[in-house]
């Protein structure tokens, strides 16, 4: 109910009606105020998570406060849920203030709020939604914290799920390209059970962060259909059976019934109304519509008005998620999932992805660039990324003599194996930082082409690549992607694609549009064919891609398991060191 006592959110003049979209990324949350009738973005705000990503030690909890933080094993990635609430308290008011200062908006014209999140990012909670890490008895227990999407320490558990699913001939495994990821709900849940039974038993709900933040806003826990389908193995109205779960571990038999199963909300539907507490946090009117939660990648497709079959949307940031719609159901090897209505109603939503993209470039800049380059970049007033891109752009294709595999954070698609690792082949004493940097840029483009070819060969043709996310600002990278994939590359017209997409869902939840596809036509925008393939470049990249594919299959399909062995050796050595330090 609106503050004016009306039940219909659209009692506000449609020309003035506003919505707020909030995008929860890996390191920060962003809010944007959007005009409903045309998608104009009127103000934005950003809040960085104070605890960022905890991947080597807990920087929260009593032990950290005492100067003795709990160490984390390799492949862990945790977050603090209170950081997410701080986004509502900081970024949303900042966005409203900016919109008021620049456009004179009236906050009472806001009719809804929508949110999106990284996935699969899991929060263990009590029955009332309290995260277990906020309970004193669990404040120093790593398993009580949020497991971020890139927590890959459950790979062995995912391997067991996959092996058992194929052994039993479970039909649902084919909806996920034949493999379940270590990033997803069931693998992480099994790890929790087997590594910290006390925390597992104390947990009443295993909640996607996308749903947890909606719970905080609207006062009701509603599972969103997107993450339930893509990350929670919910297909055709069912989760994996109790028999299957018991075969993994008898104590895991009740995982679905006791920890996971809950009301599922459809995308674009209202999950609740903004509570008085959340209204005080955000400065928004109490009682406005709160949209069902969603995933950052999936909400971006309508923000780019790219929801028709053939349009693959690549959201390129720290990682890349590839989403697209299709008219028909097909099995695509290595896809992250296919869900009926997973992006928009009436179409099959497909997802694939690359676990590391911007993260790889950032890793190289932080760890592989000599001081002279940092100084030269500063003297030019450029970031190190910009400086390396400038140098790399001067090269002819293939001039560096390198091929890289973009697996520094494992491989999400099409191999679905987070025990894989990065590699650069061809380095010599003459290799320079810009050579390696360009090879890494190209490697991520080759990874996307591998995904595109898997879809096309499986009966889900890709005719347009639509890019969103922070990396679209790199023109060299965009041209490389167009040349490598041989596809016209369109770019989203918004710098805040996921937040805009969440705002679109908020508009639908508030009743401004009948469905997301209709809203996308008015509120979403893209620049069609902003980059097109250059045939000479594409021919050269065809030759390099052939070499990439050879290495991809050699290291990724079982011919040489050296990357798996090195990961095992690393874990053993790390465990020995931690044991010695204890």
TrEMBL record:
It holds the Pfam family FGGY_C. InterPro entries: ATPase_NBD, Carb_kinase_FGGY, FGGY_C, Ribulokinase. It catalyses: D-ribulose + ATP = D-ribulose 5-phosphate + ADP + H(+); L-ribulose + ATP = L-ribulose 5-phosphate + ADP + H(+). Keywords: Arabinose catabolism, ATP-binding, Carbohydrate metabolism, Kinase, Nucleotide-binding, Transferase. It comes from the Bacteria. Its EC number is 2.7.1.16. Pathway: Carbohydrate degradation; L-arabinose degradation via L-ribulose; D-xylulose 5-phosphate from L-arabinose (bacterial route): step 2/3. Residues 313-510 form the Carbohydrate kinase FGGY C-terminal domain. GO terms for molecular function: ribulokinase activity. HAMAP family: Ribulokinase. Belongs to the ribulokinase family. This is Ribulokinase. It comes from Cellulomonas chengniuliangii.
């Amino acid at each position: 109910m609106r503050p004016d006592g009306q039940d219909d959110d659209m009692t506000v003049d449609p020309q003035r009606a506003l919505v707020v979209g909030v995008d929860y990324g890996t390191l920060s949350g962003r809010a944007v105020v959007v005009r409903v009738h045309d998608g104009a973005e009127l103000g934005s705000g950003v809040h960085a998570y104070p605890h960022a990503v905890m991947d080597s030690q807990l920087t929260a909890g009593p032990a950290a406060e005492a100067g003795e933080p709990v160490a984390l094993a390799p492949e862990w990635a945790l977050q603090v849920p209170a950081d997410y609430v701080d986004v509502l308290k900081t970024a949303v008011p900042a966005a409203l203030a900016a919109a008021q200062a620049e456009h004179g908006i009236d906050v009472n014209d806001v009719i809804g709020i929508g949110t999106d999140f990284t996935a699969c990012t899991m929060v263990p909670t009590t029955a009332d939604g309290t995260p277990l890490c906020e309970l004193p008895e669990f404040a120093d227990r790593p398993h009580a914290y949020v497991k971020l999407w890139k927590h890959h320490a459950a790979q062995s558990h995912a391997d067991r799920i996959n092996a058992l699913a194929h052994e039993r001939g479970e039909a649902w495994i084919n909806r996920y390209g034949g493999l379940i990821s270590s990033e997803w709900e069931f693998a992480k849940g099994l790890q929790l059970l087997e590594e910290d039974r006390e925390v597992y038993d104390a947990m009443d709900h295993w909640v996607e962060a996308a749903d947890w933040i909606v719970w905080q806003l609207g006062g009701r826990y509603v599972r969103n259909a997107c993450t339930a389908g893509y990350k929670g193995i919910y297909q055709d109205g069912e989760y994996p059976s109790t028999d299957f779960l018991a075969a993994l571990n008898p104590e895991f038999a009740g995982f679905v019934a006791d920890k996971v199963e809950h009301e599922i909300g459809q995308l674009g539907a209202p999950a609740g109304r903004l509570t008085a507490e959340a209204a005080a946090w955000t400065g928004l009117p109490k009682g406005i519509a709160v949209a069902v939660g969603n995933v950052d990648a999936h909400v971006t497709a309508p923000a780019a008005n790219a929801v028709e079959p053939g349009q693959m949307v690549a959201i390129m940031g720290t990682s890349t998620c590839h989403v697209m719609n299709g008219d028909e159901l097909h099995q695509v090897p290595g896809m992250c999932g296919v869900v009926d209505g997973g992006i928009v109603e009436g179409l099959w939503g497909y997802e694939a992805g690359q676990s590391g993209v911007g993260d790889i470039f950032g890793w190289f800049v932080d760890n592989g660039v000599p001081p002279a380059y940092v100084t030269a970049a500063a003297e030019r007033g450029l970031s190190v990324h910009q400086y390396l891109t400038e140098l790399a752009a001067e090269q002819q294709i293939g001039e560096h003599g390198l091929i890289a595999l973009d697996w520094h954070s494992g491989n999400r698609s099409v191999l679905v194996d987070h025990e894989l690792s990065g590699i650069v082949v061809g380095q010599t004493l003459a290799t320079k930082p810009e050579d390696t940097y360009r090879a890494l840029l190209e490697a991520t483009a080759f990874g996307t082409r591998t995904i595109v070819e898997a879809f096309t060969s499986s009966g889900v043709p890709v005719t347009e690549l639509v890019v969103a996310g922070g990396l679209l600002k790199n023109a060299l990278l965009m041209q490389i992607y167009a040349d490598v994939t041989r596809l016209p590359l369109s770019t989203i017209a918004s710098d805040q694609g996921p937040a805009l997409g969440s705002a679109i869902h908020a508009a639908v939840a508030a009743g401004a549009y009948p469905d997301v596809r209709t809203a996308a036509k008015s509120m979403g925008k893209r620049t069609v064919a902003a980059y097109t393939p250059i045939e000479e470049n594409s021919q050269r990249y065809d030759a390099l891609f052939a070499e990439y594919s050879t290495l991809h299959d050699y290291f990724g399909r079982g011919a040489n398991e050296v990357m798996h062995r090195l990961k095992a050796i690393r874990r053993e050595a790390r465990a020995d060191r931690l044991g010695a330090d204890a």
